[in-house]
């Protein structure tokens, strides 16, 4: 997951391969709640692990459910309709699928609860649900604005509820109110319970998910159209024992769009023609726009058909979440695309009609919007502008705007606060990057002499940008270590053997650790002797050649920060930013001295300094790739700079090389 302030997506050209998507949010949170209300244990396979499911799980654990993580499964032991904890303060984040259904269930379970969420959750309506529950005899107070969370739920007894008349609930703001009642009312079904929907029900396919899962838990709701629903007397939740969560069809929309825009064949696994999720009907919309789609029970295969895409006008009430993806696809269409009947967009993670209109306009598009529609005009190749896309803490805004990186103007796209995808798809960008081909992957090279602080600087810069990190020095150090262990010496007579070793090094970097054939060699390669060996093996041309390919393979999306001695001159000569980092020998000796002392290794400043100078001389005078700044490198002497100042300087240089206006600061996101 990217927790950076922003993520720059380089211009992308095509997509190919296979993605396996995480579990459906809507199914996951329903299954968790139903399993919690049932008695017995339910083993859930392929549950989504994201912010929305975590708030649900935390709440259920607080209420006394036993939750055990297994290998790819989660076992949840239900309450059997009885609370073991009658009082709790529960935090719902921004998960509508937790807030609304738990409000209904807890109102009937007879405890004393406070339910709150993030500030935006406190702006998302819940009044229609509270009204329905109040009619029934439940006792709920608003702790902030009437009609909105946070809520206080007071205990009532099931016998005191008024179940004789139909319960009336409005269906035109969110279908989650009806879902919440349908999932909770079996708790009180000592007689038939009827729910009448007032107003036109929106987002109907989500009710089908609810009914489908209720049936799997033994509750068979009768319905008359979308107007009247009856929970039969004597209904009891029965755990199905095992249940599988299909992949998220709304999450699939970004990859279906990806296939339509840029692929000769992209396979999506985990969700397909037999999905119980309404958002699977996004495939029809994408096909109308020109995508070629084949499907099987739980897979989809998508490729580009018509190009440019075909503009459409579509009532999107049945696919409110996936429809946002169409608004970005519309940029690649042959005319204006109009999405109608989407008033609910205004009360979701953000006002999505405004958000989409604002951000599409930043890319250069003409957009028209009204209370319940959006019209997006396509962008000609010369109309695209570089934009920092604000995401409003809305996962879908972040995910669908990544598709703008296929623009024909080859402009990168900056997505602010990419972390918001954690709501439903924490690894969205990693998954995207695994199947797309960029025009080029940006690299920042940081070269410099030993102990100049380039490792610390490079790690920090990589961290700020969400880029990969290559410690090329470590490759040489590990080669030196492997050489010693093989009983070889760093002399030309052993050059071929050492190069062979280097070529097949079983090395990986894992959370800052260097692992050689599974052994943590991080400390072993940091000794002064290992440094000397590294310097010696690095002077052998065959070894350098063997390691070149390995180093180049680190150049992966979204970008790379590489530190070493010849990153800018030899390995990545086309890097858009090269920094040559220096510090006086006295300064470097002092830093290294402190480092060694802190590790309990005793040494003297003088000996360190003369070692450093000897090493500088050897590194800068070797015949192959000597240590010298690339011609186009920026020099940074950090003798008197703090680490933060050096990092800021490099990030400023990087920002200057970008087409975006200015990097956001932590103070003003
Ligand atoms: O019940 C559900 O799982 C959902 C219902 C929909 O909300 P509305 O009914 O408010 O449109 C949808 O947007 C949301 O992401 C999930
Ligand atoms: C509207 C959404 O979420 P929620 O379940 O919080 O309503 C969404 O995921 O797009």
Automatic annotation (TrEMBL):
| Record domain Enolpyruvate transferase: where | 15-432
Which CDD domains does the annotation name? Answer: CMPK (cd02020), EPSP_synthase (cd01556)
Where does the record place it? Cytoplasm
Residues annotated to bind phosphoenolpyruvate: 25, 96, 124, 176, 352, 396, 423
What Enzyme Commission number(s) apply to this enzyme?
A: 2.5.1.19, 2.7.4.25
The opening ranks of the lineage are: Bacteria, Pseudomonadati, Pseudomonadota, Betaproteobacteria, Burkholderiales
Give the protein's recorded name.
Multifunctional fusion protein
Entry similarity comment: Belongs to the EPSP synthase family.
Give the species this sequence originates from. Answer: Variovorax robiniae
Subunit note: Monomer.
Residues that coordinate or bind ATP: 448-456
Reactions catalysed, as given in the entry: 3-phosphoshikimate + phosphoenolpyruvate = 5-O-(1-carboxyvinyl)-3-phosphoshikimate + phosphate; CMP + ATP = CDP + ADP; dCMP + ATP = dCDP + ADP
Q: Which PANTHER family match?
A: AROM/DEHYDROQUINATE SYNTHASE, PENTAFUNCTIONAL AROM POLYPEPTIDE
Q: Which gene encodes it?
A: aroA
């Amino acid at each position: 997951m990217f927790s950076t302030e922003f993520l720059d997506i380089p211009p992308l050209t095509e997509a190919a391969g296979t993605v396996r998507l995480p579990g459906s949010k809507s199914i996951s949170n329903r299954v968790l709640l139903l399993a919690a209300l049932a008695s017995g244990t339910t083993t859930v396979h392929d549950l989504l692990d994201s912010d929305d499911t975590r708030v649900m799980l935390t709440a259920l654990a607080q209420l006394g459910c036993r939750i055990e993580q297994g290998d790819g499964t989660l076992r949840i032991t239900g309450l059997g309709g009885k609370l073991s904890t009658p009082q709790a303060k529960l935090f719902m984040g921004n998960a509508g699928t937790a807030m609304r259904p738990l409000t209904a269930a807890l109102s009937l379970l007879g405890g004393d609860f406070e339910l709150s969420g993030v500030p935006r959750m406190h702006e998302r309506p819940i009044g229609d649900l509270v009204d329905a529950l109040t009619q029934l005899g439940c006792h709920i107070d608003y702790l902030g604005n009437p009609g909105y969370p946070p809520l206080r739920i007071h205990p009532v007894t099931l016998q005191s509820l008024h179940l004789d008349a139909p319960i009336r609930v409005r269906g035109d703001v969110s279908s989650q109110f009806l879902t919440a009642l349908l999932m909770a009312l079996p708790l009180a079904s000592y007689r038939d319970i009827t729910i009448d929907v007032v107003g036109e029900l929106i987002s109907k396919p989500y009710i089908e998910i609810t009914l489908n899962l209720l049936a799997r838990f033994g509750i068979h709701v009768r319905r008359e159209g979308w107007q009247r629903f009856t929970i039969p007397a004597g209904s009891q939740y029965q755990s199905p024992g095992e249940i599988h969560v299909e992949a998220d069809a709304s999450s699939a929309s970004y990859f279906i769009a990806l296939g339509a825009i840029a692929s000769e064949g992209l396979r999506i696994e985990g969700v397909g023609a037999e999905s119980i999720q309404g958002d699977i009907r996004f495939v029809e919309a994408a096909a109308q726009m020109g995508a070629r789609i084949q499907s099987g029970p739980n897979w989809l295969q998508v490729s580009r058909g018509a190009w440019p895409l075909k503009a459409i006008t579509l009532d999107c009430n049945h696919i409110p979440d996936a429809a946002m993806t169409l608004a970005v696809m519309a940029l690649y269409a042959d005319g204006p695309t109009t999405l109608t009947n989407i008033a609910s967009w205004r009360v979701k993670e953000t006002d999505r009609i405004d958000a989409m209109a604002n951000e599409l306009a930043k890319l250069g598009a003409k957009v028209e919007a009204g209370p319940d529609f959006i019209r997006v005009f396509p962008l000609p190749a010369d109309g695209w502008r570089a934009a920092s896309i604000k995401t409003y803490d809305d996962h879908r805004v972040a995910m669908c705007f990544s598709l703008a990186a296929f623009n024909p103007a080859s402009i990168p796209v900056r997505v602010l606060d990419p972390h918001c995808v954690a709501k439903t798809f924490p690894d969205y960008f990693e998954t995207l990057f695994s199947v797309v081909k960029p025009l080029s992957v940006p690299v920042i090279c940081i070269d410099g002499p030993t102990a100049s602080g380039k490792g610390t600087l490079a790690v920090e810069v990589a961290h700020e940008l969400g880029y990969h990190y290559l410690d090329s020095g470590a490759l040489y150090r590990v080669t030196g270590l492997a050489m010693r262990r093989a009983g070889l010496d760093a002399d030309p007579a052993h050059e071929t053997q050492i190069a062979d070793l280097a070529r097949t090094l079983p090395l990986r970097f894992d959370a800052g650790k260097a692992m050689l054939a599974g052994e943590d060699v991080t400390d072993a390669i940091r000794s002064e002797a290992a440094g000397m060996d590294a310097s010696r093996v690095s002077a052998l041309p065959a070894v350098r050649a063997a390691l070149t390919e390995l180093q180049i393979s680190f150049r992966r999306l979204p970008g790379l920060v590489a530190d070493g001695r010849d990153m800018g001159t030899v390995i990545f000569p086309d890097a858009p930013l090269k920094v040559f980092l220096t510090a006086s020998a006295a300064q470097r000796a002092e830093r290294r001295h402190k480092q060694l002392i802190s590790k309990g290794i005793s040494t003297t400043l003088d000996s360190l300094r003369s070692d450093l100078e000897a090493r500088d001389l050897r590194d800068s005078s070797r015949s192959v790739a000597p240590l010298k700044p690339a011609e186009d490198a920026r020099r940074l002497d950090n003798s008197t700079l703090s680490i933060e100042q050096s990092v800021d300087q490099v990030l400023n240089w990087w920002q200057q090389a970008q087409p975006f206006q200015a990097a956001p600061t932590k103070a003003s996101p």
